[in-house]
Structures are given as structure tokens and as C-alpha cells.
Write a structure and sequence with these properties.
Layout lengths: L34 E6 L2 E6 L12 E5 L1 E3 L3 E5 L5 E9 L6 H5 L4 E9 L8 E6 L2 E10 L4 E8 L5 H8 L16 H4 L7 E4 L11 H9 L3 E8 L22 E3 L2 H10 L11
Parallel strand pairs: 3-12, 4-11
Antiparallel strand pairs: 1-2, 5-6, 6-7, 7-10, 8-9, 9-10, 12-13
């Protein structure tokens, strides 16, 4: 038995092989037809997600993450017509309300990852699409990210609207294809409504109205929080042991009444792996 303190565990122990042929490049036609692995009482079985209600205790409480994925990838061209990708990770100001950041007009400052950064030699790069113009300028370079100022016209548009018009969905890097129109819906949960994540809360992608109807029929309680999946999802672990890796923070909203209700009633909490 390994008695090593968790902080001293080698990152190498987390490595595993993921063959390309085992990666689903597109979702199933019906979300709930995805495979579901069940482990209970030392027995392993396989079914489909459509049947998940049969494995949930009646006294469970399901917590759904209402966060919606933003089109966080922006493709710019430099003055030599070379492609630069800016990945918007999070508002630059720590603890800034993501909702306020998304509704900002005229300009915004974000922490980003930049692909082909060496090709960014001009002071400012620009995207234009119909009547929309977006300018990006580097403010400061950090070891983990680049701080970028965005300015746009028409200035009355919000940053959320700019991303909707010019951005692309940030599908996972292990899915070796470009994002497509289908991803605008398939890479969102059916109950998402608050924009802010730069990656989907993937545990919820398999839910359909049919599955939710079956869960509600069992009178299983459902509550909603908002946890915006952030930059750490894409940042590689560079330390040799866990102790050397700094975990990122993420914006979360939980209603006080929900917390008080859990404490008051001492309900059993079934937390559906949405909280990464």
C-alpha cells in the first residue's frame, strides 16, 4: 500500500494511454445513448445513460451546473496573412464577476493563451466580419498566459455578442478536428443558460429532456448552481510532483437558500461530477 503523502505523488502516475480510435469525435445521435459504466457492490456493468435514473436513490439530490460555454477561440491574421489563435481564458481582474465581464461594452481585458505567438509582431491585430471590427493588443506577458486588451466596433455590442459573432467553440484539444456549427449546440448541456465556461461541464452533456423527465418522475430533487469551467482545464501540469502544481480557481455561484436547506434537512447529497 502506498503510504506516500498525496502532495508527493509523481505526476507520472497519472499518465495513461488514450488511443485515438477510442475518442468520440462526434456525439451520439441521441445524447442519452452514450455508454454508462456502473460500479455497485463490487459488480461492474454497462448500460446507456438513458437508464441512469434506475441507479439513483430516491433520496438523492442532483446538482446541475447551468454554466454555458462561450465561443472562446478567436482566429486573427497578422500582416503576413499568418494565422494566430487567441483563446480567451478568464477576465484579467481576479474575482471579477464573469457575468459583468461578458456584458462589458466597447473594450475588455482578458487573460488568454495565444497560438503562434511568435508570429504576433505588430502592435495590434484585427478581425473584421461584416460590420464588426475587433482589435487585440498585448498588455503583458506572463509565464502561464498573455494579458490582452480587446476593443471593438460597434462599441455598443457586449463582449458576449462579439464572441458569438466572431468566435469558435473551444472543443477539447484531443478531438483532432476544427470546431463546426454542430458544436454550438452539442457542446452545451441542454440546461445551460449562464455564459462563462471555456469548456463544457462534460458530465452533463448526456442529459436529455427524456432523462430529466424520468428523474423527476422518481421525485428526485434537482438544484442548480453555476460553476464556470476555467483556464486550468487547458493548462498543462509541468511539475514533477503534485506539490509543485498550483491549482487554478473558478467562479461559482450557489444560492444561500439551497445551502441552508441542505444543512437544515441534512439531506443526502448526490453530487453529479459536474463540479470539476
Amino acid at each position: 500500500m502506498n503510504s506516500k503523502h498525496p502532495s508527493l505523488i509523481s505526476i507520472e502516475e497519472f499518465n495513461y494511454d488514450l488511443p485515438q480510435e477510442k475518442i468520440a469525435f462526434y456525439p451520439t445521435k441521441e445524447r442519452h445513448d452514450s455508454k454508462l459504466l456502473i460500479y455497485k457492490n463490487d459488480i461492474i456493468q454497462e448500460t446507456t445513460f438513458k437508464n441512469i435514473d434506475k441507479f439513483l436513490d430516491d433520496s438523492s439530490i442532483l446538482i446541475f451546473n447551468s454554466s454555458k460555454v462561450i465561443k472562446a477561440r478567436l482566429i486573427f491574421l497578422n500582416n503576413k496573412n499568418q494565422s494566430l489563435e487567441i483563446f480567451c481564458l478568464e477576465p484579467h481582474l481576479l474575482n471579477q464577476d464573469i457575468n459583468q465581464a461578458m456584458t462589458k461594452q466597447n473594450n475588455a481585458r482578458w487573460n488568454c493563451l495565444v497560438g503562434n505567438l511568435k508570429k504576433w509582431v505588430e502592435k495590434e491585430i484585427v478581425i473584421t466580419n461584416n460590420d464588426i471590427k475587433l482589435c487585440a493588443q498585448i498588455v503583458e506577458r506572463f509565464s502561464t498566459h498573455i494579458c490582452i486588451d480587446f476593443k471593438w466596433e460597434p462599441s455598443n455590442l457586449t463582449f458576449s455578442e462579439i464572441l458569438d459573432c466572431l468566435g469558435f467553440m473551444p472543443i477539447p484539444p484531443y478531438i483532432k478536428r476544427n470546431s463546426e456549427i454542430i458544436d454550438n449546440s452539442s457542446y452545451q448541456t441542454i440546461y445551460s443558460d449562464k455564459k462563462g465556461s471555456v469548456a463544457a461541464p462534460t458530465a452533463g452533456l448526456h442529459f436529455t429532456e427524456e432523462v430529466l423527465k424520468a428523474i423527476k418522475k422518481k421525485e428526485i430533487k434537482i438544484h442548480t448552481i453555476s460553476l464556470h469551467v476555467g483556464a486550468g482545464t487547458f493548462k498543462p501540469v509541468k511539475s514533477k510532483i503534485m506539490h509543485g502544481h498550483d491549482m487554478h480557481s473558478e467562479w461559482i455561484e450557489v444560492e444561500l437558500n439551497f445551502i441552508m436547506d441542505l444543512i437544515k434537512n441534512k439531506k443526502k447529497l448526490f453530487q453529479l461530477a459536474q463540479l470539476h
